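Good day; I would like, with your permission, to put a structural problem before you. A protein sequence and the structure tokens that stand for its backbone fold form the material at issue. I would ask you to consider whether the tokens describe a fold that such a sequence might reasonably adopt. I set the record out below, with my sincere thanks for your time.
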Amino acid sequence: MSLAIFDLDNTLIAGDSDHAWGEFLIDQNIVDSGQFQRANDQFYADYVAGTLDIDAYLRFALTPLAQFSLPELAQLHQSFFTAKIAPIMLPKAEALITEHRAKGDRILIITATNRFVTEPIAKALGIHEMLASEGEIVNERYTGQPTGTPCFQHGKVTRLTQWLKDNNEDLEGSYFYSDSVNDLPLLERVQYPIAVDPDERLKQIAQQRSWPIVSLR
């Protein structure tokens, strides 16, 4: 049994769930449309450029969650999933997951996006093990602050290393599928790095290193 690791945004789905959640909040008039939209777009541009301040972004993304109880957030997420996520689900991604599951591989999503946004998406894909950036919860309510090591760039390696130890796993025969150059630190650690619909910089690196490049679109 090998470990098959997947990035989520722009890999298993055809878009960025975190940015889409921000757009959903704007659509629902939950946040100030002008100011929030500009910040949401800028943070996403920074991510694409590889210059994202992950701590600042997580505080930005988590702050709106503090307005609601956990049951209220669950209801909001159902509406969000229907409006923003279901249209960008990828049949080829689901087929790839099924292929790894049929081989007996252990499947793990590892994503920089916070758990609130991503965990229901992972479950919809039939994946129940995930590493994500975490939001602090106190007294059954989000505080708007991140907690722990952000699951981003080298942080993905840090989080995965601890997960491997906790689960008595290793990276022998492991796969990692990602679209983003931000995931280069983890792509370099696994046995089989695979670029999925990659951004331009990851595409160039993959070509230079003869890594497979695939499309799930």
User: Anything to note?
Assistant: The longest strand covers residues 106-114. The mean pLDDT is 97.
